[in-house]
What does this fold into?
Amino acid sequence: MSDSKTRRARLTLAALGILVVGALVGGGVTAATLLGGDDKPPAGATPPPSTSSGPSPSQSRDALTGRTPESARRFVLEKPSGQKDGLSTGFSKGPVGAVSTAVYFWEEFAFLDDQKARQQLEAIVSPDSPGYVDEQVSGVRKLREGVGLPPSGGAPAGITFTTTVNAVRVTSVGSKVIQVWMNYDRYATKENGDLDGEPFKDQDVGLILKWQDGAWRITNEAKYKGSYPAAYFPDSNVSYRAGWRQVQHAG
It folds into this structure.
């Protein structure tokens, strides 16, 4: 791969922090806040529950046993039953189906291809979020321009991107409405098959999904207020108590 292509891959990975698709804490959190290293909840977000009164008995047991996301049982995702509009489909109505929808979407999302991204977003975004698809497609085009690509088109030739969700944190924010936070890594693979030396790792993104018309749909409706999660660390019992669980794709 030429130096210019390698640089473009790295710039693309670095620029991913400006594009977050999904209703981040009900639309109240920006990607810059989430990914910029600020450990304080942003304005309008619900902070994690206070622990000033001391841990609960179950939390104390977790701390004593050293239970962590890495050592605990993994969250097993459902296996999709089909593919449509560039996305896996066929997930169940329950919370496991919501989490599976979110994870598969994030891993499959064409974040550098505006036309494919539109197809995917139109398939999964709730009709109750008008203008949201256009807003996110505009973000894809701006991202492309920011890394030296034409505003419309596919991923750069010779570069393949892979997104892997490591862990999820799931909460209910309403009747049949679920917030799914995901910790993920994103890699660029070079033309010769080697991974780029500067992957985009250990990042967080949140989606709010509601069951609608027989499937889980992404929504950014202001009436759904999510919460801001504690940081994810695979070897931390604090992260475990905060609700983070590592994920496993069904075999």
In short: Confidence is low (pLDDT under 50) at residues 1-56. The longest helix spans residues 132-146.
